[in-house]
Amino acid sequence: MELETVEDALFPGLTLVVRKAVVLDDHLMIDAAGCGPPGVCPACQHPAARVHSRYWRHIVGLPVNGLRLLVRLRVRRFFCDQPRCPRRTFVEQVAGLTEPRRRSSTAARSAMRSVAVELGGRPGARLCAKLRLYGLRTSILSKLTAPPVPARAPRILGIDEFAFRKGRTYGTVLVDVESSRPVDVLPDRETSTVAAWLQEHPGAEIICRDRLMAFTKAIRQAAPDALEVADRWHLLQNLSTAVEKTCRQHRDCLRRPAEPEASPPLATPDTPLLARIRQRRAEVNELAATGLPLNAIGRRLRLDRKTVRRYRNKDLADLLASAQDRGHGVLDPFMEYVQHRFHAGCTSSMQLYREVLALGYTGGYHVVHR
Q1: pTM metric for this prediction
Q2: 255-264: per-residue pLDDT in tens?
Q3: Partner of 302 at 20 to 30 A CA spacing, among 124, 147, 185, 317?
Q4: Contact 158, 181 (CB under 8 A)
């Protein structure tokens, strides 16, 4: 097809006429005006018959030959003569170019939406700058719209929590595992919210979840026939936790290195309990160095005499390891019973705690809950 006019080259199929085109620095400035028939009122769909006024709109388009495109569009405002219509005037729209209250063309918004989907905010803004598109981070992200949620859940559904604000507010993301595409986002991670979603969207045959107990309860309530599996990341995390716990419990059986100075000890994660142990041991050793007896140190620090002796005589590494292992060995004889009851459907940690107490367990509730 042979192009005869500027309109055919830049705006094929659009009802407008180009009056002037000017190249200014890195911009292509185009003055144009709508030339289509009078539009219809968006409220009552009645065709317009009278022009109210005219004014200029500035529309950003796709770049042309490496130049930013800016269209100064002369549009008409029409009267709506229907007495019952709530609108008195409305502005004409050039189909394929403009939309109400938009400063970018339809094609430019579509391009920026694709950039936002693939790259996100800041990387997308950098790409738009190189492509000569008008796209700031916030304007690019504003082009994103939530995809429609399917009526049925995917065959393999992934459920995981994420943090809106770490340590305070959490949500739930649902993913189609086979296509690696998000399906929906829930505002929290409560059992009732997840169960309601599963009931409204049946069809999941396999559900891949993390270790959050709320997800287990929701699946049992709303999708009892679905097969629950753990993803590779959580399996590796479970394995590393079990190995670390076993190594701590059997640290006395491990051979000490010939030269402990050659390899520095592994860093112990800092918690309020471990920080308190470090502080107390430092205070006990500082007072013991002055020659104070154990009873006097205990009165000054409000500690039992046996506790003061333990802080004075034990290495810091042994004290920290004992604090991390506290309570685990007491529950070991009852672990088989606890696991059997848990898989049988008893998921209340308080109920399990009462049952193992009756069997002779002497530890605390927090160990059973953990």
Answers
A1: 0.48
A2: 655 554 554 5
A3: 317
A4: no
